[in-house]
Write a structure and sequence with these properties.
This protein has about 675 residues and is α+β, with helices and mostly antiparallel strands. It folds into 3 domains: about 350 residues, no CATH class; about 130 residues; about 150 residues, Immunoglobulins (Immunoglobulin-like, Sandwich), CATH 2.60.40. The chain is about 45% helix and about 15% strand.
């Protein structure tokens, strides 16, 4: 095509191209700003970004979150086409730009389809802009990065190419849609039926339908179980219907009343259907055949036990969007045939009003998305970005990092990284957190279900048990790594944790099963570690201190000092005692102290099993102003209800003093 011809086309469609370009930029800028303000998440931008980057580096589909091989979670061969983009620009933002671009470009096939079917340029432009302004388009772009959203553009292009008699190009776009995600094959199957019934293209439609079913079946029941080692996380979302696919289908067919009562009648699911159809003025309902393509995505998302799938706020409904817009266009055409004298202005006004109401209900830039859905944040500035950048600059590029949900997206271009706090894998890790080269954390950002009680106790355990020290601490952003030399920043971080816990963090609601599991982690299955300093000391109420360990034999002023105490109860203990740890000067003046239930409250004395040894970690900050010298570390127990200390017992069983001198500590500044 000649340059002059291109110029004529651009001039002719300047409004469409200009509007599409502007809105695409708006979407991209919003997504980038949201990411740069630390509101994007590991689930799913961090995961997908790392897998694509690893693939570009030759580690095909390698992942360090959830699964070791990404094909054990989702089948998205589109990553192979995206990977070279990291060769152009090794920055996560390039994925956000690509997503916004493809979402925006969807307006062009919408315009072409509407122009052919409605033969009205104004209505065609209206539907193109209605597509761009659909709240669901804004929401799927807002929530991180999901290549399944590419399906919207690919399927619209497939329909467009089919209508202009270019079946090979149409099949090419269908193929691109298929490789975006494993369940898209069900939508392609429905598209094939639509092609057969509406376009009378039986051969092409049957090929698409068969290919779609075959692809999804192989992806879900062969590829994912193979790389996952059995099962599928996606299928597990329908476990409420049955243990396997056969039982699920049987329940749907034989117990529709049960499915409705227990699931589909939930108000938020019914609201979801209304919100899906409202922005296009419910015109989609006037063309049931075109809606056929949207049915699979709507059905399998409505039936999932994950609430986020029954909403317009997430990417799950992407395969249905092309058919909602196609059905609306055909519905408008049908309405005009029924009412030939219906003014175009009335139809335009109806679309504007419907979109306006939809935006009043759900503004994709400002709507707060929280329970019962996965929380999604917009442009809020929660953490200190400057402090995060300073800490991140200290990380070696190949180091394995355990981090926060919103920090991981900025660390995903590395072979391995993980979540420091991951409630889904809590019971698969020692003390609940992974062993990594570095921990990059924010002490006060408890979004996305972070349990402050478990989170902070895990950090203290990393310091007191595994020798992690803070090499950076500013505005609650902390970077820890294992090192022998004590750091003053560790003590400052520890004091902040204690303050946050006392301010309410220690009361974070925690499931009873989780509390019991955490308590068991501090019960010794075998004898005491060889590093324990034995100090057998009997207390009243049949409690005995067996020995202790110190995290740092030569602490520094302002640094942290942690003591792991090893207790044993000879008989069942009724009272839940509190342990106190005092750091005192030679004259007995207490310079620092820590009072807390054993093992951060996860192993209260009333749950100690008689005869079993229990580990009990307590950390405190040594005051920064202390001079060099010898100090005493003292320990004891008391009843928090009365404040009465539990006495030590003499050899004859008589009570003596109420404080045990644990050891002396030399402070050398």
């Amino acid at each position: 095509m000649s340059l002059s011809r291109w110029r004529q086309l651009i001039q002719k469609h300047a409004i469409l191209l200009g509007g599409t370009a502007v809105w695409t930029v708006v979407l991209a800028v919003y997504a980038i700003l949201r990411h740069e303000r630390l509101n994007s998440t590991v689930f799913d931008l961090g995961i997908k970004s790392q897998v694509i980057w690893n693939t570009w580096q030759g580690r095909w589909f390698a992942s360090s979150i959830e699964v070791e091989h990404y094909l054990g979670d989702h089948v998205q061969f589109i990553f192979l086409l995206l990977a070279p983009l990291y060769g152009l620009w090794a920055d996560v933002n390039i994925m956000l730009i690509v997503q916004s671009l493809l979402l925006g470009l969807g307006a062009i096939p919408v315009y072409r389809i509407a122009q052919r079917q409605l033969a009205n340029r104004h209505l065609a432009l209206a539907f193109a802009f209605a597509y761009l302004l659909l709240p669901i388009i804004g929401f799927v772009n807002r929530f991180d990065f999901h290549p399944v959203t590419f399906v919207i553009f690919f399927l619209l292009m497939a329909v467009d190419m089919l209508e202009v008699e270019r079946p090979y190009w149409a099949s090419f776009f269908v193929f691109l849609a298929l490789i975006c995600r494993e369940e898209v094959g069900f939508t392609v199957f429905a598209l094939g039926l639509y092609v057969m019934l509406h376009h009378r293209r039986y051969a092409l439609g049957s090929v698409w339908a068969a290919a779609g079913l075959a692809y999804s079946a192989i992806a879900i029941f062969v590829i994912i179980p193979h790389f996952r080692g059995g099962g599928s996380d996606s299928v597990a979302r329908y476990a409420w219907l049955g243990e396997d696919v056969g039982q699920i289908v049987r329940t749907l067919v034989t117990q529709p009343g049960f499915v409705w009562r227990e699931h589909l009648s939930q108000p938020f699911r019914l609201q979801f259907l209304i919100k899906l159809l409202l922005p296009l003025g419910f015109l989609s309902l006037l063309s049931p055949l075109a809606l056929l393509g949207a049915v699979p995505a709507i059905v399998y998302n409505l039936l999932s036990d994950v609430p986020s799938q029954s909403s317009i706020y997430f990417q799950y409904l992407s395969p249905a969007i092309p058919f909602l817009i196609l059905a609306a266009i055909q519905g408008a055409d049908r309405l005009r045939r029924w009412q030939p004298r219906l003014p175009t202005a009335v139809l335009l006004g109806w679309l504007i009003v419907a979109l306006g109401i939809a935006w009043l209900l759900d503004n994709p830039f400002t709507t707060v998305i929280d329970d019962p859905y996965y929380p999604v944040y917009g442009l809020e500035q929660i953490g200190n970005r400057a402090a995060f950048d300073e800490a991140m600059a200290l990380l070696p590029p190949e180091a394995e990092v355990a981090t926060m949900m919103n920090y991981g997206t900025h660390l995903s271009l590395r072979p391995r990284y993980s979540l420091f706090y991951d409630r889904l894998q809590l019971e698969q890790r020692p003390f609940g957190f992974p062993q990594a080269d570095y921990f990059l954390l924010n002490l006060s950002d408890w979004r996305w279900g972070v349990n402050a009680r478990i989170f902070h106790s895990s950090i203290e355990t990393a310091v007191g048990t595994f020798g992690y020290e803070a090499i950076y601490f500013q505005d609650d952003v902390v970077l820890l790594t294992q090192m022998a030399e004590p750091q003053a920043a560790t003590g400052a971080m520890l004091q902040r944790i204690i303050g946050l816990q006392e301010a309410g963090g220690k009361f974070a609601p925690t499931a009873q099963t989780t509390l019991e599991w955490l308590g068991q982690q501090w019960t010794l299955a075998e004898g005491l570690p060889e590093t324990v300093v034995p100090l057998p000391t009997p207390f009243a109420d049949n409690i005995q201190l067996l020995g202790y360990e110190l995290s740092e034999p030569e602490p520094v002023a302002g640094g942290a000092l942690c003591a792991t105490l090893y207790w044993q109860a000879e008989t069942a203990v009724v009272t839940d005692y509190t342990v106190f740890l005092h750091f005192a000067a030679e004259d007995g003046f207490v310079q620092a102290q820590r009072d807390s239930a054993p093992a951060f409250g996860f192993a209260p004395t009333s749950r100690w099993q008689p005869g079993s040894a229990v580990g009990d970690l307590h950390c405190l900050q040594i005051p920064p102003h202390l001079l060099s010298g010898t100090y005493h570390l003292n320990v004891g127990l008391y009843d928090p209800a009365t404040g009465m200390r539990l006495p030590l017992l003499a050899g004859d069983g008589a009570p003596t003093e109420d404080t045990l001198h644990l050891t002396e500590v030399s402070l050398n500044n």
